[in-house]
Amino acid sequence: MTDHNTISQNQHIPHNHSITMIPGIELTTNFGHCNFLGSDDPISDFRATSNEEVRSIINEAKKNGAKTVLNHPHCPDCGWHWEYEMGFDWIEVWNGPWRKANEDTVQWWHDQLCHGKRITAIGGSDTHRPHQYIQHGMPTTWVFSQSKSMASIFKGINHGHVTLSYLPSGPFITISSDDYMTGDVVIMNDDTVQATIRIVNIAEGDHIKVISDIGIEQNFKHNGEPTIEFTVQVEMQQFLRVEVWRYFKEVNQLLMAAMSNPLYFERNK
Known about the structure:
- There is one protein chain.
- The chain is 14% helix and 37% strand.
- It is mostly beta strands.
- The strands form three sheets. Strands 6, 7, 10, 12, 13, 15, 16 and 17 form an eight-stranded mixed beta sheet that branches.
- Strand 15 and strand 16 (253-260) form a beta hairpin.
- The longest helix has 15 residues, at 100-114.
- The chain is globular, with a radius of gyration of 19 Å.
């Protein structure tokens, strides 16, 4: 639960509820927004007019137990125009309905992965008011967690055990190799390993992309059952990630329907 530069919503979070409610605040400046998650009152003042002041606010939030998420950094109206080296924890690559700003952020994130940085990608609905296409759970951020506690959920996100879909009923992607799962680092003792990709709730006509630091490894149209499983051979790749694109007749476009965080690979020296 976040709102712009205010924490009053955190005073009304129900504590005896089957849904885990995570408190937060959206730091809102003239040059970018970011979420502080996990603290009822993470900062003393939201006002900032320089990179140094923004960095100080982020450090204060961290000291108060909050995780920092860069929000919609390539949005044309309220993108992130501060420095990126601010010590943020996660990045919101998918904000609300799929659009060019999200695509630009995914490309930026991919470039960071290719340079060896391991940043967990998450999504956010940015729901403010009733809207046909801007609703909670659009997109959905799925986290593999040992429990429903906030600490366990954050641990799962820190480890990159996250996949995204445009709806809770959208495609769900898993990447595994032996006992390793999405977000993990596979230690390669052999020259090659096999990565298994499994996608459920996939529709006929969906486009599947398997992407690594080398480029697009596979790109094909699905014409089969609602569950697909296949393997990819890994040799020199630093990571593998998967995207599912779907044609939406409402906008007459092929849009992102699901995307995974990477499975990483390291050679055992």
